[in-house]
Amino acid sequence: MHLAIAGMQPFTSIDFPGKLAAVAFCRGCHWRCGYCHNRHLQPMAEGNDWAQLATFLQPRRGLLDAIVFSGGEPLLQSGLGTALARCREMGFATGLHTAGSSPQRFARLLPQLDWVGFDIKTSFNHYADITGIPGSGDKARASLQHLLDSGVAYEVRTTVDPQWLDHDQLWTLALDLKAQGVSHFVLQKCRREKQTTKTDPLTDKKYVAEISAMFENFELRGVGSG
Question: Which CATH architecture describes the domain 5-221?
Answer without folding.
Answer: Alpha-Beta Barrel (3.20)
